[in-house]
Design goal:
The protein is mainly β and about 375 residues long. The chain has one domain (about 5-375): YVTN repeat-like/Quinoprotein amine dehydrogenase (Methylamine Dehydrogenase, Chain H), CATH 2.130.10.10. Helices cover about 5% and strands about 45% of the residues. The chain contains one helix and 32 strands. The protein has one helix at about 5-15; strands at about 40-45, 60, 65-70, 75-80, 80-90, 95-100, 105-110, 110-115, 125-130, 140, 145, 155, 165, 180-185, 190-195, 195-200, 210-215, 230-235, 240-245, 250-255, 260-265, 270-275, 275-280, 285-290, 295-300, 315, 320, 330, 340, 355, 360-365, 370-375. The chain is globular and about 50 Å long. Residues about 1-25 have low confidence and may be disordered.
Length: about 375
């Protein structure tokens, strides 16, 4: 892969705009033609302050209800696109929103985590993390896991925000500046790390339960040896799956950690799932559908290659992706055919679409636009 393409993907995954490369239509392939086979309608739109560096994404807290944040310090709950409450941190935000449906947590650019009551927007507590945070916190009733940009993870108390534990592990000299997510299940958080590792952490005490190798770094230079796990790991039918940049997509038996299957597909954005299948956007921009049980190919859609599509979201019979110009494209889940498209505000999205219910989803752009869509 050419160095320029590699650096563009690193910048995209890390939320850092590469001058003259991201968001410029001359650098993207043209929009492909398609035969309309679904209806994609914009239900509502709201505007917040945005940033190409700090990628703030909505947290779904109930059906058709989200908590969103703006870079200027605004935190707001929207039900069906209508404001229920709005709060102001009085300082710029770097990461969020994370929520378990009861608490909504953001992290300011000075490293302070702030928690709000989802029901009424009242501020519950503030706690200094003491590190730069780029990824939305993982909020649970046991601990709030906040991941710093240097891959340290801090466990904060949901009650008052005090630090319960810190998890750290050695990381390579060079890694992607990204928003690696955390899968939480029961009292465990599973997340990926630079160097191709996936780790399960006990949310009660921050101890490592196990470590698995998704991919091994290869090459002679630091850039060639980038093999960071990207996106959020998935749990599907007792299989834990994750993808690594310049590595592979791998699924492990969740009961014993044994490798079930793997595919040599590199991704800068991660994977989605639905109906027993796994969907991955590779580093060229092609979208693959794979059998979740064995990794066999079902289809490949490459018409969006060169448009930097993001992580796929499965909504009913469809797969939804966004691109670097803010277009939302809908693929049919059965064969990958492009069946619908809509535009937003011309800027890329801060993260993958988030499902609101069985046929609707929400996206947020780097310009700060928040859009609710329905596909059927």
């Amino acid at each position: 892969m050419r160095l320029g393409r590699l650096l563009t993907l690193i910048a995209l995954a890390g939320g850092v705009a590469a001058c003259g490369s991201l968001g410029s239509s001359k650098d993207l392939t043209p929009l492909p033609a398609f035969v309309e086979g679904a209806r994609l309608g914009q239900d509502w739109r709201q505007s917040l302050s945005g940033s190409p560096v700090y990628r703030l994404s909505p947290a779904v807290v109930a059906a058709d209800s989200v908590v969103v944040a703006g870079i200027d310090g605004t935190v707001e709950r929207l039900d069906g696109g209508r404001s229920v409450w709005r709060s102001d941190l009085a300082k710029p935000i770097a990461a969020g929103v994370g929520s378990d449906g009861r608490l909504a947590v953001v992290v300011a650019q000075d490293g302070e985590a702030v928690a709000f009551d989802v029901a009424d927007g009242s501020e519950k507590w503030r706690a200094q993390v003491g590190a730069e945070v780029l990824a939305a916190p993982a909020v649970t009733g046991i601990a709030i896991a906040v991941r710093a940009s240097d891959s340290r993870i801090f466990g904060l108390s949901p009650q008052d925000g005090h630090r319960m534990w810190t998890y750290r592990r050695p990381t390579p000299a060079l890694s992607m500046r990204g928003q690696t997510g955390m899968l939480t299940e029961d009292n465990v958080a599973v997340t990926g790390f630079p160097g191709g590792k996936m780790v399960a952490i006990n949310l009660a005490n921050g101890g490592a339960i196990w470590e698995l190798t998704v991919a091994l770094p290869r090459g002679t230079t630091e850039i060639e040896r980038l093999a960071d796990v990207v996106g959020t790991p998935l749990l599907q039918a007792q299989r834990l799956c994750a993808a690594a940049f310049q590595g592979r997509l791998a699924c492990f038996d969740a009961t014993n950690g044994n490798l079930v299957w793997s595919r040599d597909i590199s991704s800068a954005v991660g994977i989605g799932q639905g109906g027993g299948e796994i969907f991955i956007t590779d580093e060229s921009g092609a979208i693959h559908a794979l059998d979740g049980s064995n990794g066999a190919s079902i289809w490949k859609q490459d018409k969006l290659a060169g448009r930097l599509p993001g992580r796929p979201l499965v909504i009913g019979r469809y797969v939804v992706v966004t691109d670097a110009e803010g277009y939302v494209s809908v693929l049919h889940r059965e064969d990958g055919a492009l069946v619908a498209r809509a535009e937003t505000d011309g800027s890329e999205m801060t993260g993958p679409p988030a499902p609101l219910d069985d046929d609707s989803f929400v996206v947020q752009s780097v310009k700060g636009g928040v859009f609710g869509f329905t596909v059927n």
